[in-house]
């Protein structure tokens, strides 16, 4: 299990990009932190989530 924003999810084995696409997350406007380190967008297709990982997703919302 992977902890995502405080909730356990069964997404171990997925790449970050596949995980984001499954969630319909805005890939261009999101920051992914994995185990306390930022995952750079260029590495989304190379980094695989593993059991025990802690992931935080932060998306930017514009407004005015």
TrEMBL record:
Gene3D superfamilies xref list: 3.10.20.30
SUPFAM superfamilies: MoaD/ThiS
InterPro entries linked: Beta-grasp_dom_sf, Mopterin_synth/thiamin_S_b, Thi_S, ThiS/MoaD-like
One Pfam family hit: ThiS
Name this polypeptide is given: Sulfur carrier protein ThiS
Lineage, broadest ranks: Bacteria, Bacillati, Bacillota, Bacilli, Lactobacillales
